Amino acid sequence: MQLSYWEKDTYFSNIDVLIVGSGIVGLNAALYLKTRQPKLKVVVLERGLLPTGASSKNAGFACFGSPSELLDDLSHHTEDAVFSLVERRWKGLQRLRHNLGDTAIDYHRWGGYELFEASQQQLHTECVERLPYLNRHLQQVTGEQEVFRLADEKISRFGFRQVEHLIESTAEGQIDTGKMILALTQKVQTLGVLVLNCLEVLELQEENKGITAITAQGIAIPARAALVATNGFARQLLPQLQVIPARAQVLITEPIANLKLKGTFHYDRGYYYFRNIGNRVLFGGGRNLDFKAEETTELGLTELVQQQLEKLLQEVILPGTDFEVAHRWSGIMGLGPEKTTIVKPVSEHICCSVRMGGMGVAIGSLVGEEGAELVLQKL
């Protein structure tokens, strides 16, 4: 791509911070940088027309962990590590709401629920026994009593079949992730951040006084420092990082008259998740059907997962209700051997903020700010 003198001088000269990735992490990093130092020239590069990973493709759960997920985490990590991460998720959600406002992101605190089938009686019993313990710790994080509570009486109200038990999370909410990214983009642009789409960074070259980003479009972009905020795609630029891509497939129904669902729902240990969007049902998951196939950076759908999503809609979530699938899509998450995020310097002029662990909505705002703070130390 050939640039004019004007284009090169206006867009690609005297850049202080180059951010790779225009999702929730990258845009929050840009917001933090311009808030702290308004005179910085901050440029965000995005390989796609819209954020490529999961920021505007996820289910929009404003959550911080279901009971069974937290108990599973406690079996692998220390108590301090688990509830420290929960606190970061909670603080990240509050930061997101504070930065953009509930109206802009269409935030609703309608509660969340974990579903248990008959075959999961032992898991449910363990969760019930540990609820007082979990609630004590969650009260320290949220300031609210009895965040988790039994809700079996709501099973018939929601119309589920093959569901024996429900546990409610009173502090859980939902957002519109498309509106969130639009609001974030507009906010940083108002502050003077340049967000450039369809520019793919292939390599970040370390220089004496900064970095040079080599792009697929043939444009070399110099900057004083860079932040990689590409989450599931992080190893394409930083292969040394322990970030495993994980594709999440999703579908949404046409509007359903008199839909009974309202809230966010976790099913089968969180491998499936669904919610209402108005009077539609968004349903995603199924990665556990073939973990290896879903460890990919390729956006796409598989018949195996999509058929299972429809089957569970028919048999468990919307039994006896006619529905049509309106749309299907997928997003790419970033996971790892641990659920902790990776926010660190990777060289003299390059930092990274990646590996959201499927909790980007909750923790992305905080992780973006943390990465931006590291970058400021390099300027």
Your description of this structure?
By secondary structure, the protein is an alpha/beta fold. It contains 11 helices and 19 strands. Helix 2 packs across helix 11. It starts with a helix and ends with a helix.
The major pleated sheet works out as: 8 strands, mixed
CATH class of the largest domain: Alpha Beta
What's the pLDDT, averaged over the residues? 96
**Which oligomeric form is depicted?**
single chain
> In terms of structural class, how would the helical and strand content be classed?
alpha/beta
Q: At CATH's second level, what is the architecture of the largest domain?
A: 2-Layer Sandwich
Describe the global form.
globular
Major β-sheet strand ordering = 5-6-4-14-15-16-13-17
List the helices and strands and how they pair.
Layout: H1 5-11, E1 17-20, H2 24-36, E2 42-46, E3 61-62, H3 67-74, H4 79-100, H5 102-105, E4 112-116, H6 121-142, E5 148-150, H7 155-158, E6 165-169, E7 173-174, H8 177-190, E8 194-197, E9 201-207, E10 210-215, E11 220-223, E12 225-228, E13 244-253, E14 264-267, E15 272-277, E16 280-285, H9 291-294, H10 303-317, E17 325-335, E18 342-345, E19 350-354, H11 360-376
Parallel strand pairs: 1-2, 1-12, 2-8, 4-14, 12-19
Antiparallel strand pairs: 3-7, 4-6, 5-6, 9-10, 10-11, 13-16, 13-17, 14-15, 15-16, 18-19
